[in-house]
């Protein structure tokens, strides 16, 4: 189970539904390895990932005048943090299908906040937390920096549609080197409640996914997305 950090608040109810959209190869890698891939924070497309807003950065620069290593530490810390992003939504999201799956062979994992918390297997090698992302104006609003995880729990308002909750792993203390990211041990049966197949996929594809999941020894509920169901007139 994830560690408790008194500085990080997760306001969502444990039964809050969350989703992860991914392609078949990543899904199979998750099931076969029983490990969840987390991307290194500075490898995301958003170049502001893990950085500070302008008001906070100006304050940090003042504090760094007599201690230049202070600012440098914050810059390099992004290389030591890995993130797994999940989307909070009661229902499927057409936009998330479009953004995070490249073709009609995508998969959506449905879980809950509570399942994410219980799926994490404690590790001695690094710190791990779950937090909900705050969306702010990076030109005007302040990001606190009294906790090293805070920069990774804030994003620009233009990303509000993501409604993101994150699993965050920090390997700084044990001097691990992250390349593209990190794979962490998880309880797959806790992590996944249900699987949805891409709304534009063919029936043969759904049957293929069902067969593959069974062969790997899992028994998840698998459904075809109904976002493309027949129109009733």
Question: What this model shows, in words?
Answer:
This is DUF2971 domain-containing protein. It comes from Flavobacterium frigoris (strain PS1). It contains 7 helices and 11 strands. The protein has 233 residues and is an alpha+beta fold. The protein has one domain. Strands 1, 2, 3, 4, 5, 8, 9, 10 and 11 form a 9-stranded mixed beta sheet that branches. It has a two-stranded parallel sheet with strand order 6-7. Strand 10 (194-197), helix 7 (203-215) and strand 11 (221-224) form a beta-alpha-beta unit.
Pattern of helices and strands = EHEHHEHEHEEEEEHEHE
* Distance between the amino and carboxyl termini: 49 Å
Give the number of helices.
7
Unreliable stretches (pLDDT < 50, length at least 5) are none
What percent of residues adopt helix (DSSP H or I)? 25-40%
Strand content: 25-35%
Quick one: biggest sheet? Answer: 9 strands, mixed
- Return the average pLDDT rounded to an integer: 87
Per DSSP E runs of 2 or more residues, the count of β-strands stands at 11
| Silhouette | globular
Strand-pairing-aware structural class: alpha+beta
Q: In the residues, how many domains can be counted? A: 1
